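User: Predict structure, ligand pyridoxal-5'-phosphate.
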Amino acid sequence: MSIKDLLSYEEGAEKQFLNSRLGYTEVSGNPELRKVISELYTTMKPKNVIVHAGAQEPIFNFMNVLLDKGDHVISQFPTYQSLFEVAYAIGCEVAKWTIEQSENGWVADINKLEQLIQPNTKLIVLNSPNNPTGYTLKKEEIEAIAEIARKHDLYVFCDEVYKGLELDGIKRPWFADHYEKGVSLGVMSKAYGLAGLRIGWLAIRDMELIEKLIKMKHYTSICSSGPSEFLSIVALKHSDKILARNVRIIEDNLKIAEEFFNRYPDLFEFNRPMAGPVSFVKMNITAPVEEFCDALISEKGVLLLPSNIYSFQRQYFRMGFGRKNFAESLAKFEDYLIEKGYV
Ligand SMILES: Cc1ncc(COP(=O)(O)O)c(C=O)c1O
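Assistant: Predicted complex:
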């Protein structure tokens, strides 16, 4: 979306944007933005929200503030790399809680999660809706994980950057609303499709932790970009319309993708995402998936993420459905399969 398109959602916003000042903003974020973000939640107040640069800065800062060398962390797997890699870099032990493939899509085994808890476990890291599987935890699963975390007195960091793109129409609670030691990560980049704004946030009930995170932010970005904060306020005020627009793009692309995968049931096992614009597709072609994807991008300019990028040792690739030119890219992918003699 262009800046002009975004500003057109709100009458008078363009003029206000052009007249906005370019000084430093508040470390914890523009107060109006914190208010609009807090209203996404049921129990958060503006004081519970800290604005950051995208989602990557708060992942890095949170892990560095909470964790010490030797702590044990459990991370959902597969997931976005930095959600467990920052903990490794700090010197933590990391156990992976793998979401398993079943005949009917992905399955989260909560008992297995509890079995991974050690005496020195400090944190559970979740990513729901998940990159790359498109799996989203159901309300009962969120409740069960909160219960386990409460029993063992653990923090739960839930990366919810794709929240708002539920494709089954069911809205799940934000983790921070559900659990007193829950931390919710949100961002303008993913569900809203506004990555260039570089605005993300953490929602947290624990005020002591918030104070530490504000101090930490002085060492990373100090404050967020004022123009981006303004544009994020506009986008969040029109959240329903923007999310509905993005869900429509994904739904339209998924229809085309399903027709495609139905044509090649022997080659691929398609997992329809429950939420979000990505899915992890099982590939029954024997060529190593990394080589398969490397040749595809160099010969056709089409990007699929091979599972080795996620340190996931099975034949999967991630496909994205968030772009308007999806049909064109899929046609190029089909040409590639034909040229290589796979079909
Ligand atoms: C699950 C997840 N979390 C966090 C990020 C980082 O987001 P940002 O680019 O807004 O920093 C990404 C980016 O791909 C992601 O997929």
